[in-house]
Amino acid sequence: MRRARCAIFVSLVALLGSLAASTLAQQKAPDHRRSGFQMMQPALQEMQRDDGSNPGMLWAREGERLWREKTGPDQRACADCHGDATVAMRGVAARYPAFDEAGRTPIDLAGRIMQCRADRQGGPKLTRESRALLSLSSYVALQSRGLPLAPPDDERLKAARAEGERLFNARMGQLNLSCAGCHDGYAGAKLGGSVIPEAHPTGYPLYRLEWQDVGSLQRRLRNCMIGVRADPFAYGSDEFIALEAYLAQRAGGMTLETPAVRP
Predict the structure, then answer these.
(1) Is 218 in contact with 160 (CB distance < 8 Å)?
(2) 76 partner at 20 to 30 Å CA-CA among 32, 105, 224, 232?
(3) Rounded distance, CA 228 to CA 239, Å?
(4) How many CB atoms lie within 10 A of CB 225?
(5) What pTM value is reported for the model?
(6) CB of 262 closer than 8 Å to CB of 205
(7) Helix, strand or coil for residue 100?
(8) Closest to 236 (Cα-Cα) out of 73, 37, 100, 121
């Protein structure tokens, strides 16, 4: 009997130990990632927080008007299909880039808006970095502000993310530098008086003081490529979509800030 009791006791101890180890394993390690917001001066942080001071909100409000504006031969608005954006678009921006069933390829949020405009509304074509597209993108993304980035768990995005990771780590241009070389190796340091961020796309489209304008993540990526004296990829290219897909996965779980403000 004693041996049986000892065996049961040992088994219980082992089971409890296993459960404790499993619980510890499931606990998340501290997240040391920082968005560009956390690296800014308090005055700029306050500008982003205050919708009355955040210049990016001008684009978002223009996007709200465009959301309701009828266009195309059938005079249809975004709202005619989707309804109230504050409900229908909640969480949508946090899940892009996604896989497009029609095109059988990854697509970013701006690309989806362009696609809807052309195929569903038949309205005038929107172009990358146009004020109308940035405004609509800002308004749609605003509905997900405060939510965590949630890249789709979709195997069909695996190849694009892998290509984006390769591009992020690839040296390019006359200066022979990679994205990772700066944003992983020197994040938090200063370059030309500006803090080097960790390259997490938590706020796009965003307002940059340098631009005095709202711009997309692809515009920022082009700026970096030009900075290292490389030929930039074309807006909407497979390369930029791949980079967006990788960066979104890399920032998964971080809070969406659109429209963010940056120096």
Answers:
(1) no
(2) 105
(3) 17
(4) 19
(5) 0.87
(6) no
(7) strand
(8) 100
